[in-house]
Amino acid sequence: MENKFIMSLSLNVLNHLGINLYSNIPAVLSEIVANSWDADAKRVDITIAEDQIIIEDDGCGMSADDINNKFLYVGYQKREESLESKIYHRKYMGRKGIGKLSMFSIAREVEVISKKEIRKAGAEGKCFEISGFRMNIDDIANVIKSEHSDSNSSSEYYPEVLQVEEDCIKETGTKIVLRKLKKLTTSLTPEYIKKRVARRFGIIGKEFSFSVYVNGEEVSISDRDYFHKLSYIWYFGNESQKYADFCENVSHKEERENIISCNGENYKITGWIGSVDASGDLKDGEDNLNKIVVLVRGKLGQEDILSEYSEGGLYSKYLIGEINADFFDDDTLDDMATSNRQEYRKDDERFIALKQFVQDELKYIQGKWTELRNESGEEKARELLPVIDTWCKSLQGDDKKYAKKMFGKINQIVADDDKKKEILKFSVLAFEKLKYAKHLSAIDNIEAENFEVFKDIFTGLDEIEATLYYQIIRERIEVIKVFQSITDENALEKVIQTHLFNHLWLLDPSWERVENTQYMETTVLNALNSEYNSLTSEEKAGRLDVGYRQTAGKHIIIELKRADRIVTTSEMIKQVKKYHDALNKVLSAIYQTNYSFEILFVLGRPIDNNDSIENRELVANILKPMNARVVYYQELIENAYKAYNEYIAANKQSQPLIDMFSQLESSMDD
To answer: What is the pLDDT of residue 538?
Structure first.
């Protein structure tokens, strides 16, 4: 019967399974190292040069037939011939025969040289066959292009044959050279590659008779560079205790069960989950280590399984781990790896079983982590602020119990030392208020995960607020003194203006934050200054440049006059009207209708040199419709002193807490 249908495969498959397979160099190098493992290599050397990467192993090598029938055969499945390597009986990492194509995702040119021991009839001693070839991505692209344009064109690509000397490889093995790299290689230091190769394999080292070197430096488990950061570790099964032994600073080690049940079968996993002391410890340059990787047959199979859970607890931000799940690659079951070979099908029953196992472990770890952090909270607080040690010793009974709870929760919330000192200082003072109000039980209602509740409870305390503001008030009085000094000394107007603009609360206590952007400042000032293009040189010299700020949702124009300058009512009205019209024009164009503004004149002498109450009221009534007002230097200084000195005097009852605040502050400065 004539064949009616035919299925054909195009070289264009390289675009999907090779050129676009991997996104980073360590992942590609891992595929090549995995091939070396499968080839019974004992040593792999990776050499990073300026414009190329060389990977050479001492494995069994390939003959010309092997190259054609295995290496260049896309989709060759070695497991159909054997399930393990011939010499060391290693279970193969490779399965689909496409990982080698990943080389094209980082290099435009790939050169392969391989040497294999062969048998020759009648020959004495060892005989070897060495072969070499070069593949170029542009040449492959041309073949692919011709496929599309000519249906009769050959769909085969013929790599360039290389003439190589037999002694270019000492014994047996394979050498791969990646040239014309497409990825940036400025960060490809030996340390960078060593770290990432170490993190992608669990079978490197003497224990496995498999060593990897990068630019002559051996890769070891310590190159993973995170075991020394762990403070707690939970490891799965006695076989995994070695991971806990690698940790230098752990205060808690705990063995956990390592059997997973799936479809009536029990599978053994190994590995660990650990916690660091500070979440920032999991930031490693471009890498985020806050994940739990899955390794299969000693090679990274999935970058992260922790992200599969909607874990909202703070504890999860401190976690890192490695799970070895070889049952994911059971030769008797379907391949569950996705086409990109970097993760697994989430609907596979084995993945679901592992996910449930890890979820149960995370629940246990959450409770244990909280307990451990609580226990170490007081100790951490005493270490950070010695004055707390004295304070703790003064506590008795339930007070001591609640203080320990508070420190424990603080220890969960943040681990950065500077932030922790701030929270400790704040919380000790809040604790004193709660103790005074006989309401320490409120600490039980504060969840570490809910920092806003924690914050709201403590900021609602009047005496504590007074204490916390003490430092601000003290600093403000110093600012007032400086302002008085520079005005008394008749300093340059620009000096006065700068000082005032940096401390707008001198004009209005509610103006805490300056919100203006450079764009708005430039736009508004240009509009205002354009109103004065008609001034004479003498008139321009008689006034300061106007200043603009935006704060408390309001746009503010501030102009200072010299302390001895007398301004007339008519002059003031004329100037305010120009400001008013210019501001309305600019702000309406930007905000349409939703805006407000105020115009302030800071003067040293009364308007019209008339300091009567009647004249002041008259000026105020004239300026009010145009959102303008006058502020005088002396009144400004007197009112500021009065406001803040009265605040301190009214809170004398907080003095003991103020003293403690000062001690805590001094401790932080030491």
So the answer is: 46
What is the residue range of 232's domain?
A: 226-366
- Quick check: helix, strand or coil at residue 337? strand
Q: Is residue 340 part of a domain?
A: yes
- Three-state SS at 49: coil
Instruction: Give the list of residues 6+ apart from residue 525 with CB closer than 8 angstroms, or none.
Output: 546, 548
Residues 405 and 411: their CA atoms lie apart, in Å, by: 10
Q: Among candidates 440, 438, 432, 495, which has minimal Cα distance to 465?
A: 432
CA–CA dist 95, 80 (Å, integer): 9
pLDDT at 543: 44
Task: Report the distance separating Cα 351 and Cα 357, nearest Å.
Answer: 10
Say which residues have a Cβ less than 8 Å from residue 607's Cβ, sequence separation at least 6. Answer: 567, 568, 569, 572, 615, 616, 619, 630
- b/e for 124-140, b at 16 or more Cβ within 10 A? eeeebbbbbbbbbbeeb
Q: Which two tokens stand for residue 48?
A: 């990073």
Reported in sequence order, the residue ranges of 119-249 that DSSP labels E, i.e. its strands, are 127-136, 160-161, 173-181, 211-214, 217-218, 230-236
Residue 77 within any structural domain of the chain: yes
Instruction: List all residues 6 or more positions away from 303 whose beta carbon is below 8 Å from its beta carbon.
Output: 291, 293, 342, 343
456 and 475 together in one domain: no
Domain check: are 394 and 499 in the same one? no
The answer to whether residues 81 and 204 belong to one domain is yes
Biggest CA–CA distance in the chain, Å, is 127
Strand order in the sheet with 230-236: 252-256, 230-236, 270-276, 319-324, 292-296, 299-302
Residues recorded for the chain: 670
Q: Write out the two tokens for 234.
A: 């939970």
What CATH number corresponds to the domain at position 128? 3.30.565.10
Q: What is the pLDDT of residues 592-623, one digit of tens each?
A: 677 788 888 888 889 999 989 998 899 999 99
Contact 179, 136 (CB under 8 A): no
- Across 51-60, 187-196, 279-288, 291-300, least confident range: 279-288
pLDDT value at 184 more than 80: no
Q: Tell me what pLDDT residue 323 has.
A: 96
Chain center to CA of 343: 23
Cα 193 to Cα 28: distance, rounded to the nearest angstrom: 11
**Per-residue confidence band for 187, with pLDDT thresholds at 50, 70 and 90:** low
Amino acid 515: pLDDT: 55
Strands 107-118 and 173-181: antiparallel
Domain membership of residue 273 (yes or no) is: yes
Residue 358 resides in a domain: yes
Distance between CA atoms of 41 and 57, rounded to whole angstroms?
Answer: 6
Q: Are residues 39 and 140 in the same domain?
A: yes
Measured at the CA of 196, the angle between CA 190 and CA 197, to 5 degrees, comes to 85
Q: What is the 3-state secondary structure (H, E, C) of 580-625?
A: HHHHHHHHHHHHCCCCCEEEEEEECCCHHHCCCHHHHHHHHHHHHH
**Looking at per-residue confidence, does 452 or 340 come out higher?**
340
Question: Do 248 and 132 belong together in one domain?
Answer: no
Query: Distance from first CA to last CA of the chain, Å, rounded?
Result: 93
